[in-house]
Write a structure and sequence with these properties.
By secondary structure, the protein is of the alpha/beta class. It contains 14 helices and twelve strands. The chain binds pyridoxal-5'-phosphate. Its cofactor is pyridoxal 5'-phosphate.
Length: about 425
């Protein structure tokens, strides 16, 4: 017994030394380019066996050798080695000091919104994810937090919504599903001046294409279910911050709410992230082709994609990102035409969600934005003819040919 204890002790000393010796290289890795970072951050070979993949530590609790000497891990809600690996990767990718992984994007957003309390006022973009809209419009008011929704493509409109008790600004750019663009630098500057905490949902871009922290934003939130995971096989969320005081508060809230990512899902997320960069590059290249083809098609009323030069946010988006991403929306004019189109599509899934290796078509009216009242939806350009496509890794020509054959079925319809 004693021998075993001693051995464990030695092992853990080695572990601690090993971790110390790794602290430096970790920091040096921050300067690597995204394609390298996604492969090498948070995923050092396992120290005892050299395993190339981070082990899945399926432990709820950790033996404490000395009750007076705190160890790195004590209980998996507070910290788990597999989750820590993915949290390090997320932090490095977003260029922040601390990353946090959650059981879903909404768990991450809920935790971020836990920074606010009764009597606080928030300003949020009106073009916001339906679930976030539900939290802000239905749930948080019950705890005394009020939100004003504004057209955040106009920074003046954000400034005009300010109240003496405003504490936070919640943004999403490009927005869902109309791909509206907010000038993140200008919004971050305004928030700084006013002493507000600024939060950006960076799900659509991923850190490979847009890094809000570098533009002055305080808190980055992700639905890691989407591009970060990338394979339509897990639900996960993330927060990354750079400010040490905010990191402390988010860490406290993560442990307090307890909506943490499981060890197994942390591993899946890490695995997904390894190919994030190549996936994003390939997908956005195809998305640009799809957007161009749809825009040229007579059955399509309108295309929303920040990679199109006539998109109202084209210039701002180009200046603050490394690409237009893989999500675009298009309007077919009516619900009937959408239904007819969807029955003909062969390749893309028709589903809630985005960011998978397979292209996914969604119908915001009954899917992502079902929680929004119809008038509210219409006023945001989410009409009954709007479809969103998350472009996957299929061959671009195959994908476009499939969409075009489905569109061809609409001609002779209502016109
Ligand atoms: C999906 C999504 C969310 C919610 O994330 P879940 O992982 O489904 O909880 C939040 N924001 C955006 C932009 C999303 O697309």
């Amino acid at each position: 017994m004693a021998d075993q204890e001693q051995q464990k002790d030695k092992l853990s000393q080695e572990q601690q030394q090993n971790e110390l010796s790794q602290a430096q290289p970790h920091q040096a890795k921050d300067s690597l380019r995204p394609a390298t970072q996604v492969i090498h951050t948070g995923t050092e070979p396992e120290e005892h066996t050299g395993a190339a993949s981070v082990p899945i530590f399926m432990a709820s609790t950790f033996h404490q050798r000395d009750i007076d000497a705190p160890q790195d891990f004590e209980y998996s809600r507070s910290g788990n080695p597999t989750r820590q690996a993915v949290e390090k990767a997320l932090a490095a990718l977003e260029g922040g000091r601390a990353g946090f992984a959650f059981a879903s994007g909404m768990a991450a957003m809920t935790t971020a919104l836990g920074l606010f309390g009764a009597g606080d006022h928030l300003i949020a973009t009106r073009d916001i994810y339906g679930g976030t809209y539900r939290l802000l419009s239905q749930v948080w008011p019950r705890f005394g937090v009020e939100t004003t929704f504004v057209d955040a493509t106009d920074v003046e409109a954000i400034a005009a919504a300010a109240r003496p008790n405003t504490r936070g600004l919640i943004l999403e750019t490009p927005s869902n599903p109309t791909l509206a663009i907010t000038d993140l630098r200008a919004a971050a500057d305004l928030a700084r001046q006013q002493g507000w905490i600024s939060i950006v949902d960076n799900t659509f871009m991923t850190p490979c294409l847009q890094q809000p922290l570098a533009l002055g934003i305080d808190v980055v939130v992700h639905s890691a279910t989407k591009f970060l995971g990338g394979h339509s096989d897990l639900i996960a969320g993330a927060i990354v911050v750079d400010d040490p005081a905010l990191a402390k508060r988010i860490g406290y809230l993560q442990n307090a709410f307890g909506a943490v990512l499981s060890p197994h899902d942390s591993w899946l997320l890490l695995r997904g992230i390894k190919t994030l960069y190549v996936r994003m590059q390939a997908m956005q290249k195809t998305a640009q082709k799809v957007a161009t083809a749809l825009q040229a098609h007579r059955e399509v009323k309108k295309v929303y994609y920040p990679g199109l030069i006539d998109h109202p946010g084209y210039g701002v988006h180009k200046a603050q990102s490394q690409g237009a991403g893989a999500v675009l929306s298009f309007d077919l004019g009516s619900r009937e035409r959408v239904k007819a189109f969807l029955t003909k599509v062969r390749l893309a899934l028709v589903a809630v969600s985005l960011g998978g290796v397979e292209s996914i078509l969604s119908y915001p009216t009954t899917m992502s934005h079902a929680a929004m009242e119809p008038e509210e939806r219409e006023s945001r350009g989410i009409g009954p003819g709007l479809l969103r496509i998350s472009v996957g890794l299929e061959d671009a020509d195959d994908l476009i040919a499939d969409l075009e054959q489905a569109l061809a079925a609409l001609s002779g319809g209502q016109e």
